[in-house]
Amino acid sequence: MIGINYSRLTFFLLVLFLCFNSSNAQNDREELEKRRIELRNEISRINELRISNQKKQRSVLTQVEDLNQQIKSTEDLIKLTIQQANLLTREINTNTNKIGQLRKELAKLKEDYAKMIRRSYKSKSQQSRIMFLLSSKNFLQAYKRLQYMKQYTEYRKQQGEEIKANTEELQALNAQLVRQKEEKEQLIVENRKTRAQLEENRKSQQDLMATIRKREGQFATQIRQKQDEIDEIDRAIERMIRESIAKSNEESGSSSRDTYELTPAAKALAADFNNNKGKLPWPVRSGVVTMKFGKQPHPVVRSVMINNNGVRIDTEEGGKARAVFSGTVSEVQAVKGANKAVMVRHGDYITIYNNLETVYVKRGDVVVTEQQLGEIATSRTTGKTTLHFLLYKNNQKMDPADWIYKM
User: Fold this and answer.
1) DSSP 8-state symbol, 277
2) What is the pTM of this model?
3) Highest CATH level, class, for 217-402
């Protein structure tokens, strides 16, 4: 009986192991697939934008920026597809091992069951059972023998059910293995096509870059002029922050002009915001960062340095800006050259959502995480829908990529 119980325990633990690992693998697959769909949609959107800009004869710089972003997204898609294929390979190997273990377990169960059937057949007559009971030395022994016969019959039934469950599990794993191999083959085919598209885009990029190199001085001047416009927008936002701090402190009776005077509730909110560093949701439902925080070489004309006080995120046309954390709308202002800006205060932390065509909130409104704040404007010049997202602590600018999850 000890050997048989051990076998049943092994089977039970194996089933638990299968369920646990299957659940984790399923979560990983779903997350990768979601990201893959987002990347494919992003590549499609950029491609449509590129074609549109070519027809409208937009700036070569704009075309190269679009192409660079498409190449980057395509490279990300290839990496992610490889991740998916590798995950499937691991799952296939794991399932192959599980199938081997289950087959051994099933063979052992069937062997034990066959021995039991043979023993049962040898003593199957009703007379033998009665004689087995009547031959008892006393009533207690007869009672124990009767209980043993009942347990034996029940155990035989249980073992038959275990064989059935084991067989069904084995069949399910085999079917899953077939599906996984088909999925992996599809990913390999898709990756082959994606790589071909990537090479085509890189050739187009080289042709456009040759044009830019011939007129690099002219393009450098255009970039610096654009940077001057960005600097002016950033200065306007910093003025808005300073004025908002001063206004808030004046209302609370404080003379401080550089930092917020915090109530106990505001301190708790700021602490909660800080505790979520690196875990905040994106300020758009889906999008891609096209300009990072801080000083950096221009993505096309690398000899020119540009600066950004926040991040720029391209999203789909009609995309909505969303609050990254609960807070209070402290300002809604028009910003020259950048449509409208919404400023949300989280204690002494501030998030700013700039370049909104339409605003859904007003000063004083309490907002919650992922609440829509407004519709992002689409540029008539470039055709891009870009959110300018900034994050401050009082008047100190911070890199949003340190705060937003996987930015």
Assistant:
1) T
2) 0.67
3) mainly beta
